[in-house]
Amino acid sequence: FTLDPAAATIALDNLMTGNSVIRGIKPEAELVINGDTVFVGGLQGQPNFAYLNPEWLTDLKPIPNSFRFDGYQTGPIEARMQWKKVRHSAPDAVWPPKGIHLVMHYSYPERFDGLKVMVHYNLYDGIPVYSKWLEIKNEGPAPYLLNVFVSEILAAVEPESWVETRGAEMPKPNIQVATDYQ
């Protein structure tokens, strides 16, 4: 992550292969509130989305008319549900899992007075997995209607692209997504 000039995910790397999973910087989330689309964090101005050159980061700017970063908190991962180990095949299973919980706070007082957006990440130790979710609180006087939300926007490298691997075996996917949203 970077926090300057705005909060944004600037890398998501597979530490087993050394490959980058993302090739571009996008907002942390997209919301449609009262029918208007607004982004949460992120940077703009990347000249080419085919790849991400770290040297470009100094020229990127905050996305105008978006929720702005107010700060963050970190702590241990907390249990989000009760869980009791019932299988003997996982004798070392720890609950909640070890790792770090990151909460990034955003607001946009000029347009959505009192509306707070929190982007939560659980980054797990020893496994190439993270979870992400949004929390939205209205602490202001006006009601707001959340029409639509997108909690993850990734400009990902497509492993099935054969540009670099003509004649070779098709590469395996570099990312899998699971959701509990119903």
Q: Uncertain segments of ≥5 residues (pLDDT<50)? A: none
Mean pLDDT: 87
Largest sheet, described in full? 4 strands, antiparallel
Total DSSP helices: 0
Q: What is the tally of beta strands?
A: 11
Assign a percent range to the helix content. under 10%
What is the terminal separation in angstroms? Answer: 29 Å
Relative strand content = 25-35%
**Largest beta sheet: strand ordering:** 6-7-8-9
* SSE succession: EEEEEEEEEEE
Class by alpha and beta content = mainly beta
Principal-axis shape equals globular
Rg over alpha carbons: 19 Å
In summary, what is this structure?
Helices cover 0% and strands 34% of the residues.
Could you characterize what this model shows?
- Helices cover 0% and strands 34% of the residues.
- The chain has strands spanning 22-24, 29-33, 36-40, 43-44, 61-62, 68-76, 99-107, 115-124, 130-138, 146-150, 155-156.
- The strands form four sheets. The protein has a four-stranded antiparallel sheet with strand order 6-7-8-9, with no helix packed on it. Strands 3-2-10 form a three-stranded antiparallel sheet, with no helix packed on it. A two-stranded antiparallel ribbon has the order 1-11.
- By secondary structure, the protein is an all-beta fold.
- The protein contains no helices and eleven strands.
- The two termini are 29 Å apart.
- The protein is globular.
List keywords for this structure.
182 residues; mainly beta; four-stranded antiparallel beta sheet; three-stranded antiparallel beta sheet; globular
